[in-house]
Amino acid sequence: MADEQSPRLLRALRHRNYRLFFSGQSVSLVGTWITRIATSWLVYRLTGSALLLGIVGFCGQIPTLILSPFAGVLVDRHDRHRILVITQVFSMLQSLALALLALPGIIRVWEILALQLVQGVINAFDTPARQSFIVDMIEDRADLPNAIALNSSMVNGSRIIGPSIGGIVIAAVGEGWCFMLDAISYLAVIASLMAMRVPKKQRTEGVGRVIEELRAGFTYVSQSVPMRSALLLLALVATMGMPYTVLMPAIATVRLHGGAHTLGFLMTASGLGALIGALYLASRNTVLGLGRAMVLSTIAFGVGLMAFSQSRAIWLSLLLLPIVGGGMMVETASTNTILQTIVEERMRGRVMSFYTMAFLGTAPLGSLFAGVLADRIGAPTTILLGGLACVAAGGWFALRLPSIRAVLRPIYVRKGILPG
Q1: pTM of the entire structure?
Q2: What is the per-residue pLDDT across 230-241, written as a single tens digit (0 to 9) for each?
């Protein structure tokens, strides 16, 4: 048993490939968060526009909404490991391009938007491949929930470290060096992927037309009550709640009268809460009860956003943002865990592409809408309305729980999660 061979919280790390992945991604994701905060700060410094912050978020994620379903078919057909190596190399080149334009101070807003679109295209293929590849790195499926939770811990640990470093680097030497650090950090994850020993698996390359496989994936998800409900909840939360992150520079400067350091502290506080939420999930040894956790975390996320929107003090904002980050993390990681547990292997890539659409693909619509709304009624009121929508979404999912549990029970019995 995994619990007998390694501490319960870290049991997925006993798998060599996952250890390599975890170490390489831990370095790379710090760089990713440094770039995210630097991009937002650079755009706001150049324009002072909340609307453009929303447009930047839109450009970075709209390709995911359009391309993820096709990426899911590709992931089910081809080698996930190879796809990941390719996407990480292209991501490194994208960050390097940002650095080479920003360091001499010649970068313009349209160039940032164009490069955000490029990264969005890369992410559309990278995210479903990465989520599906977790299964390939874990020999014992009992460790899968822990691997997903540790992956979330890694992402959110980087959210704590990355923005803090980013704020310091921006203040000291400017945004260009943030992008350069990110480009260098990709070498770690590329090296870890190349060091893996991944057995070749039989893929269904060239079987059926892409559109037919895409339709089969959509039918599979839409006919499953748990999948359909969980993905709809995630899409609502990502659309209405997550845009608070793109409005953070406006909150830091206008509402809290701070600078790049303030922005870094705010993002770090949110990341700290998310890390705590991910560690809570990693400490669990079963998927049972995650539906209730999704309800509570979604409502906590919404309430936290509403309270944060009204804060005018940095200390109060720093106390509230861990609730926001933790709520969002538990909701998204719980959704991922349930989907990965119940999905059939032949559909894994496509289902994770729909997860990517719900989580990242809908966010650009929310970012654009939030940017337009914030330009008219202000960032605080926009965040308040997003929080209200998330509380309503959590209430809706709570009403759906009995029917979801009725469908999940026989699946869990068949997989040995529940006794027959």
Answers
A1: 0.77
A2: 999 999 998 898
